[in-house]
Task: inverse folding
């Protein structure tokens, strides 16, 4: 029976966030080439919007940041997400996915993972697959290490490849200035630069490393959070893109409470005292000409969700 509240639709719109890693600690790579991580993700208000429309085949188009660089063939992560759900659910329907991109491509903010997460949520709704949250997280894990977090959103601790998630307790909102770089960085290249820089000197993992950071989140204290930001990949990203040092320094000079490269970079995240201060830091970064684009954002925000 179809009620007024469940009228079948031939299109849906889903919004998924980009992320900042508040902390990222990487061990030596395992036999699968992946580096075991302990990372604290925060989803921020820079979004990928995906409109999914019923179609015969599975296709994708894009507008927005970097739409010229991202492939639109079957290597596109959103296409792969739709294909994976269709094959898992035994569905032969198609979908056209239109992505409005605002997360920088190859920027360390997991924009491609956000597209995949949004595509999973959108096609599940469009096709009426009825996948559970756990099913979607499991499919997300098969698509990429950051996809589960784009589904979950908010703030979470990631272990394993970064894909085994535990939600973190956060009070209030944090305000960021995000500097998007002119060029992207390849994630595997940054991890391999990390291995080269470290040689045999891989730091021991310390379970207490992020105690101050978790405490800062629980108390909503941006000063303590700023001091606790950490990214093992930052020296590797700076090694590959030395100009990034100027971006980091400009944000520090502008009074940011803490500055960190997002994931494998090259986006630089600078924490403000409040919304107005994040805007001041963003203006300083813009004036210094050290980024292609500077935006402000708040976090945490929810993971991939239907927009009505
Ligand atoms: O899972 P995803 O496709 O996003 O990862 C891209 C690449 O980043 C991997 O192939 C691997 O080289 C590197 N990576 C890693 N350790 C992780 C996550 C990613 O070495 N925990």
Result:
């Amino acid at each position: 029976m179809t009620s007024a509240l469940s009228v079948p639709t031939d299109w849906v719109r889903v919004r998924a966030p980009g992320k900042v890693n508040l902390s990222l600690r990487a061990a030596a790579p395992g036999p699968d080439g992946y580096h075991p991580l302990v990372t604290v993700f925060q989803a921020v208000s820079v979004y990928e919007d995906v409109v999914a429309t019923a179609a015969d085949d599975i296709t994708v188009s894009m507008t927005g940041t970097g739409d010229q660089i991202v492939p639109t063939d079957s290597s596109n992560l959103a296409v792969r997400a739709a294909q994976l759900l269709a094959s898992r659910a035994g569905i032969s329907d198609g979908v056209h996915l239109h992505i409005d991109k605002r997360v920088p491509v190859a920027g360390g903010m997991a924009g491609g993972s956000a597209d995949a997460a949004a595509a999973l949520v959108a096609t599940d709704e469009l096709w009426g697959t009825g996948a559970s949250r756990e099913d979607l997280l499991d499919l997300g894990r098969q698509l990429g290490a950051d996809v589960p977090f784009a589904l979950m959103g908010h703030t979470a601790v990631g272990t394993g490849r970064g894909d085994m998630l535990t939600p973190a307790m956060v009070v209030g909102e944090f305000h960021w200035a995000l500097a998007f770089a002119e060029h992207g960085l390849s994630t595997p290249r940054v991890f391999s630069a990390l291995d080269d820089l470290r040689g045999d000197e891989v730091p021991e993992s310390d379970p207490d490393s992020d105690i101050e950071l978790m405490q800062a989140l629980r108390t909503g204290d941006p000063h303590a959070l700023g001091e606790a930001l950490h990214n093992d990949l930052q020296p590797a990203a700076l090694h590959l893109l030395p100009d990034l040092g100027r971006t980091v320094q400009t944000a520090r000079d502008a009074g940011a409470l803490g500055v960190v490269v997002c994931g494998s970079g090259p986006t630089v995240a600078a924490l403000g005292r409040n919304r107005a201060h994040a805007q001041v830091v963003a203006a300083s970064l813009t004036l210094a000409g050290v980024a292609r684009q500077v935006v402000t954002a708040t976090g945490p925000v929810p993971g991939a969700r239907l927009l009505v």
